[in-house]
Structures are given as C-alpha cells and as structure tokens.
Write a structure and sequence with these properties.
There is one protein chain. It is built from 10 helices and 12 strands. With 363 residues, it is of the alpha+beta class. Strands 4-3-2-6-5-1-11-12 form an 8-stranded mixed beta sheet. The longest helix has 24 residues. The structure holds aspartic acid.
Length: 363
C-alpha cells in the first residue's frame, strides 16, 4: 500500500467509526438551527404569564422563520438572516427597534454575520439609521472589500447598497428610555438597570453542511464614547467555521471581547476533533503517517464535547467577572446553550422534529 492510499484508508476507517459511534443512537439531523434573544438576570416570579407567553411566541416565530428556510433547502446564512430580521423588528429585544440607549440618549446599533464555508464576514458598529443592521452586516460581507465598518461610513455604505434607512426616532421605546433615566438617576450600572441584555443571535447548519452565525444588538444601556461591544467583533460575539462550529454570544461584551469567546470555542472544538481523529488514526494504522483532513475531524464533535467546551469558555468569562451566554452549533448538527445568568431567551430546531423555546435556567 502506498503511503497515500494507506493514509486514505485509515482516514476512511476513522471517518466510518467516528461517524457511526456518536450518530448511531441518534440520526444526524439534515439541518439544525438555534437562536437567542439575550441572556441576563430574570426571575420566574417577576415575569407575568402574559409576558412570558409574548417572549415565547416571539422566539418561536424567529425559530420557525429560520427553520423554514433550512427545511426548504435554503442556506444557513439565509436562515440566520430570516430569524434575526424578525427579532430586530420586535421591540422586546435589544436589537433594531427596541435597542437600548447610549448615555447621550441615542440608539447605536451593532451587528455581524459570518459564513462558515470560507470564514467570510461582515460587521457594522454605531449605526443609527439602518432599520435592520443584520442586512447591512451581510452586505459588507457580500461586498467583500472590508469586514468591519463603523458609524457615518457604514451609513454611507448602506445608502450605496440601497439598504432601508429610517429616522433614528424609529428605534425609540419608552421602556429602554426609562432604563437609561433610571441608570442616571440612581447611578447604577447597566447590569442593574438592564436586567436582561436582549441582544439577538442565530446559528444555522444547512442541508449542504454549511454553518453560519449572526448577532445584532443595541449594546448596553448607558454606553459612552463610541463603545463597541462583542456582538460585531468577529471572534468575540460572532464566529462560524465549517471545520468546528458557529457561535453567537450575548452578555457583558467587554468580557466576551477579552476572552475572544466565539473563536475560542470554535478553536478548542477544531483542535479537540483533530486530536480525537489523530488518536484513532494512530491506533488504526500504527506505522503509517496519518493526519487529519479538513472537515473529517468534526465527526468527533459529540454533544458532550461541545457542551463542555462551551461551558469551559463561559467559565473563563465568569472568572473575569463577566456574565452572559452563547449558542453553539457543530457541523454534526449538535446545538448547545451555555450561560451563567439566571436565564437566556433561546430556542432550537432540527430536521428531526425538535422545535423548542425556553427562557429560564432549567426550562
Ligand atoms: N453583548 C452585548 C454588548 O455588550 C450586549 C448584550 O448581549 O445584550 O454590547
């Protein structure tokens, strides 16, 4: 056997066994989808049944919109966009209409998307007139010349691309203004005022096996001086790579940037998958020189592994003093949530009939 053919045979054997083991018990979904609508301090007691039903309905609508795209064979990126568009238009969430206020009483919006096929990405920060910042982030990615646009330049780019603009007053809501006023009056932090963060995000695996991620937010109440959170920072709040996972985060952005949460999770998963494959290939063909090929290592990304990696990285956020959560989707279709707050608005759906939304820890 030539070195090349024995390497190929060993990889095939590794692939066959690794794919059979985790997936035999549970059929791999053809598509998989997960969303979040923010994480934060929320208590069952403080939420009326009516309010809870409103949030659950909004989450279900966003989940269904993305799932419909994937069911019909649409792309992961289209599914992410479909879900986030709905949540941006819904004032209950801190993205698009309903965004939180800056210290100066403005709504400055951030968003990002990333395509796991080639790690192309688009992000915008500090926009004040674009009705759906997720569309602008996607246009930045599609245009391809730059990854991250800010403020006036981003608005100019939006005009060039014909993206719908609105008067800044469109984003205003009484609830978010009151939160800012309370913060100023009581001199409390955004965390005390803005009990739930409310950022929105989605991650998708389509039938072609591609991953995508997107996140959109108004940031944190009372942010100043052009502050940028993690959501539009590729690698912090948003990341997608077909070799490992798609992630969207929500929480205290400063900590997510410092930990590089989204990319850290994906990198750990990519290396864990490789390690598992290498170990297997080594055992299967002791004297052959066998490595792993791009993509093949992902068959080792079981739910347990994905959950523990997400939890480990979130533990680092907590150790530094931050809080929030992530949604993580692996190429196998495994979708996990990890959060260190009392709740996270969230949902997931798969081709195998899963369709669930939840709010509190333990739901
Ligand atoms: N992560 C966002 C930020 O820091 C806030 C949030 O998730 O609600 O801007």
């Amino acid at each position: 056997m030539t070195a090349l053919s024995s390497r190929f045979a060993a990889l095939c054997a590794a692939f066959a066994i690794l794919i059979a083991a985790p997936l035999a018990a549970q059929e791999a979904p053809k598509w998989s989808f997960a969303i979040h609508g923010g994480a934060g301090t929320m208590s069952r007691e403080a939420m009326t049944p009516e309010r809870r039903a409103e949030y659950e309905a909004a989450l279900q609508a966003a989940l269904d919109a993305g799932a419909a795209v994937l069911r019909e064979g649409g792309s992961a990126m289209d599914a992410v966009e479909a879900a986030i568009l709905l949540m941006e238009d819904d004032p209950k969430f801190n993205a698009g209409k309903g965004a939180v206020y800056t210290w100066e009483g403005r709504n400055e919006l951030d968003a990002a998307v990333m395509d796991g096929r080639d790690r192309s990405a688009g992000a915008v920060t500090g926009v004040t007139r674009v009705r759906n910042p997720i569309l602008l982030a996607r246009a930045v990615m599609t245009d391809g010349r730059h990854v991250f646009l800010s403020g006036a330049g981003a608005e100019e780019f939006a005009r060039d691309k014909g993206i719908t603009a609105v008067d800044p007053a469109y984003f205003e809501t009484d609830a978010r203004r009151e939160a800012l006023e309370r913060m100023k009056a009581e001199q409390v932090s955004a965390l005390d005022v803005d009990l739930k963060f409310g950022t929105v995000g989605a991650v998708a695996l389509d039938q072609a096996g591609n991953l995508a991620a997107g996140t959109s937010t108004g940031g944190m109440t009372g942010k100043r001086w052009g502050r940028i959170g993690d959501a539009p920072v590729i690698g912090a709040g948003t990341y997608a790579d077909n070799r490992s996972c798609a992630v969207s985060a929500t929480g205290w952005g400063e900590y997510f940037i410092r930990v590089g949460v989204a990319q850290e999770i994906c990198t750990r998963l990519r290396l864990s998958g490789r390690l598992a494959l290498d170990e297997f290939a080594e055992a299967a063909s002791a004297d052959d020189e066998v490595g792993s090929a791009g993509g093949v290592e992902n068959v080792a990304l079981t739910e347990g592994l994905v959950q523990s990696v997400a939890d480990d990285v979130m533990a680092e956020v907590a150790e530094l003093g931050g809080d929030g959560g992530v949604i993580v989707l692996a190429p196998s279709g495994v979708a996990v949530f990890s959060f260190n707050t009392s709740g996270m608005y969230r949902g997931r759906a798969t081709s195998e009939g899963v369709s669930e939304v939840a709010i509190f820890r333990g739901d």
